[in-house]
Design a protein that fits this description.
Blueprint lengths: L2 H9 L11 H9 L9 E5 L4 H14 L4 E4 L11 E3 L2 E2 L2 H21 L5 H15 L4 E5 L17 E4 L7 H4 L3 H8 L7 E4 L5 H14 L2 E3 L6 E6 L4 E5 L2 E5 L5 H18 L6 H9 L8 E4 L3 E4 L5 H13 L5 E5 L7 H8 L5 E4 L10 H8 L6 E3 L3 H10 L6 E5 L2 H15 L1
Helix pairs in contact: 2-4, 3-9, 3-10, 4-5, 7-8, 11-12, 14-15
Length: about 425
């Protein structure tokens, strides 16, 4: 089966299973020889910031000389972005090869249980590939929740990292922070847990309890050691624990993601990994990720951000506040199962014009329905069903002092990015 055929098969599967649990994943990996047991992991769960922290840690480890795998979701550039080794995406040929091997055994699992889900299949493919590449370490991002996530099949990792926890996927994870934190804490098996510093006390209590149950040390970055030296939405310098850094990812929230990654690297160093201060600085200063407050153009400002829940919207809001002296246009599309009213409540008041579009997802909220809701928060609202048409019409009308922010969903960001690049040329 070639890459295109493999992709059609993968995308035809259910993303997550109706029956939560790890039985399908356990059976599948046993048939594959349990490749995950031959690897060492840094396991990362949370609501927001997983991609930023995972990528910063991966870059630190690569710079330290370790062969480093990275598993992230969702993707922006292309599907293969989800699986990387030393910063390089899995090739189409390698994906097809690993896919064929996994699929042979997936059929056997389906006969005994039910068909593995899309995410389970992807995770198994990644484990097989990382083993083939002889990775020293893998930065493994949770797909959904933690306790029953397919990635939680791994043995106790070197460390666990819990990023910012907020309300998202409430239909599956629960509609209270303590419930969601309980699901995220399901990845904690021992070793040391590094916890993002700005958490609701309810979240901290749940994580502390889980750490006591499994004898996991808990490390929370010391905010007293963080001194922000320069802070605007695009650039920032800070000093943490006596060392000066320049962050490369825009947005104030990244100061806190950075110090979480720094503490995680220090915990790895305590376990004997050779990670120098210069390696940590490299990961902080050289990490760039598509659609994370990504500046696509200046004069006019064009920003692409994948914020898709209220916490992500609040992070984006701090940037909109700084740019509020400029006329702001929001081009937004959301998924129907997200808290889009709260996202609108946070972001829409900053817009002189809000343009609703339909993201490329079966879970998308139709542009006309989103526009109807947006009118409650913004006086000027229009809608397009076609993303390319919306971007062309919007970019062509921008003036030098304008700000265009495209946000609301990573599915939208993925579709919009190449169209934006083409228009901006």
């Amino acid at each position: 089966m070639n890459y295109e055929e493999a992709m059609r098969y993968v995308h035809g599967l259910s993303r997550f299973g109706m029956n939560l649990g790890l039985s399908r994943m356990t059976a599948l990996l046993e048939k594959l020889g349990n490749p995950q047991n031959q690897l060492r992991f840094i396991h990362i769960a949370g609501t927001n910031g997983k991609g930023s922290i995972s990528t910063m840690l991966s870059n630190m480890l690569i710079h330290s000389g370790y062969c480093t795998g990275l598993f992230i979701s969702p993707y922006v550039l292309c599907f293969r972005e989800r699986m990387q080794v030393n910063g390089e995406m899995i090739s189409e040929e390698e994906f097809s090869e690993c896919f064929s091997l996994v699929c042979q055994h997936a059929d056997e699992v389906a006969a005994e249980f039910e068909s593995p889900t899309q995410f389970e299949l992807e995770t198994a493919i990644a484990f097989v590939w990382y083993q083939k590449k002889r990775c020293d370490l893998v930065c493994l991002e949770v797909g959904l929740g933690g306790r029953f996530d397919a990635t939680n099949i791994i043995p106790c990792p070197l460390i666990q990292v819990i990023t910012s926890i907020g309300l998202d996927h409430t239909a599956i994870l629960g509609d209270h922070l303590a419930q969601i934190a309980f699901e995220k804490a399901g990845i904690i098996k021992g070793s040391t847990t590094v916890l993002y510093p700005l958490q609701d006390p309810e979240v901290v209590s749940v994580i502390e309890r889980k750490c006591r149950e499994v004898d996991s040390g808990l490390q929370i970055p010391d905010l007293n050691q963080l001194h922000i030296l320069r802070d605007d939405w695009l650039e920032g310098e800070f000093c943490y624990d006596g060392i000066k850094y320049r962050k490369s990812l825009p947005g104030k929230v990244q100061f806190y993601n950075c110090i979480t990654a720094i503490e995680a690297a220090k915990q790895l160093r305590k376990q004997g990994l050779s990670i120098e201060d210069g390696d940590i600085r490299y990961g902080i200063e050289q990490t760039r990720i598509p659609a994370r407050m990504e500046l696509m153009a200046r004069s006019p400002w064009v920003i692409l951000d994948g914020s898709h829940n209220p916490d992500g919207a609040r992070a984006l809001e701090s940037t909109l506040q700084e740019l509020s002296t400029h006329p702001i246009t929001l081009l937004m599309g959301v998924l129907d199962d997200k808290d889009y009213l709260q996202i609108l409540r946070i972001l829409a008041p900053y817009a002189k014009h809000l343009i609703a579009v339909t993201p490329d997802s079966p879970r998308a909220l139709a542009a006309k329905d989103f526009a109807k809701q947006a009118k409650k928060f913004c006086p000027k609202v229009s809608s397009f069903e076609d993303i390319a048409e919306a971007i062309h019409a919007t970019v062509s009308e921008l003036k030098e002092d304008d700000v265009l922010v495209i946000c609301g969903s990573l599915y939208l960001a993925s579709a919009a990015r190449p169209l934006l690049l083409n228009e901006l040329e």
